[in-house]
Amino acid sequence: MNQPRIQAQITFLSASEGGRNSPPTDVSDGAYRPHLVVGDPNQRKAWPVDNVAQETYLGVTFVGGSSRVVAGEPFLAELELLYWPNVSYESLVPGATFTIREGPHVVGYGNVKSISMNGAT
Length: 121
What we know:
There is one protein chain. The protein has 121 residues and is an all-beta fold. The chain contains no helices and eight strands. The strands form two sheets. It has a six-stranded antiparallel barrel with strand order 1-6-5-2-7-8. It has a two-stranded antiparallel sheet with strand order 3-4. A hairpin with a 2-residue loop joins strand 7 and strand 8 (105-116).
């Protein structure tokens, strides 16, 4: 069964903005698996209460995009919805904005351009 995918415009934060020391080098090979949190892309930290995240973390796998990512430069990427259908991804609709998380750390942001339920955008 093919997993649903979204196409999104992504921007990774520079280290000076709180992002990674260097962005992932190749986001097209399926090895990069962060979480997305739908909401304001200007949010730069998690909202824990009693050390528990109060946001919904949606697991994704980057399966298409640039082989050379530069912090601060937007690019189009294809992301597979990793845990579908066991997790609801209904908030990832065209136009939705999100932050990219590695644990509680916000390392980037983006917006959904399109979604495909048959595994190809």
